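Protocol step 4 of 6: structure prediction from sequence.
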Amino acid sequence: MTKSLFDSFDQVSAKQWKQKIQFDLKGADYNEALIYKSLEGIDIKPFYHQEDLSEIDNPVSHPSEWKNSIKIEVSDATIGNKKGIQAIKKGAETIFLVIQKEEVDPKVLLQDIPSETSIFIETKFLSASYVNILNDIAKTSKQHIYLLTDIINLLAATGNWFANLKEDHQALEEITKCTSLKSTLSIDISLYQNAGATMIQQLAYALAHANEYLNHFDDKDYNPFKRNKIIFKVAVGGNYFFEIAKLRALRILWQALASQYNVINECHIIAYPSHRNKTILDYNVNMLRTTTECMSTILGGADTIYNLPYDDIYHLENDFGTRISLNQLLILKNESYLDLVENPASGSYYIESLTSQLAEDSLALFKNIEQGGGFLNQLKSGNIQRKIKESAKKEQELFNKEKIVLTGANKYRNDKEIIPEFEKPVFLNKNVRKTLLEPVIKRRLSEVIEKNTQ
């Protein structure tokens, strides 16, 4: 039997590696020279060793496959239906429909979309009667229809309920009784990432956000958490390895929380690239950003992935941007073969360590939120908003000092670049209105620089 090549070498402990590094530093301080502290407060070491996994016992479940999707904004049922059918023909495996108004006829919208297609639906309104129509369609259709309803996300994003707390929860209860739909409830945590929250905050808020629904349905005769997997909608940024670990940590955290309520402890993750690091300066670089971010979602274990068109910030939905965004996903699956390895991040000393640290720190913050009265109470007091602002400010300062680099925006600028024409609002517009609480505001890192170039 051939002797393994590795048997020819002595094992080297983490202590021995560190001693060798300290010797090569020639007197420089190891911690100051080589330890990097992330925005999350996690110390990143220059190397990771098998010994780092000795105290980690959190096996991360990973989907056996991931599905490419495409997001379609729907204001007209016929046009939305046409776009959905075309997307499937061009390679999308699922479609994500965002219905803008109640006048959109769901029967027209979903007709002739191939059987067995998974269709994720999000509505910009709250209507139990509309969802009942979707439920009736699902009873006879072979399509897999998922509804994403998240009234707390609307409150956090706008500062108001659809109607009020009581009526919104009553509508939610009726919606969750539509048993022919594959899901009726979701947790949208993309808002927090796009507003500048750290990954620890995003994960903790995800748990606290979900815990509000778990508490609400815990004593109800009908509990949607016991019938279907919960859906998390997650935005992914440019911190490649951290984003992989973030998705993995989310599964660990949900499993821990769900076990306390005796509900389904598996979750479905829909992931897509964030707006936060996208730019209108040298906007073609957005294609590179979204490619690596989609890779993070794949390696992190997202179930469904839709991409962000490179011109999404300033252009309305258009054929070219949509085609490019879908083709990026097709290349990652059909030419890069990223779907052929199951749970590729498993066993990586660095990623496993990051996953464990993110999960541990997020759980601690979640417990702190619960001790403070829970997520809704913390939103109403403004504590969540204040913490996100503090994190966003730190990240913005790093961007301004070029510690965080967006090529073509804060570094390697093209001074002769012509700013594209805007088809939709690019910068935050002040909208003075009465709200129940301060909304969580999405902000892009490059906005100030972009304004100064106009």
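Step 5 (inspection) to follow. Residues 349-371 form the longest helix (23 residues).
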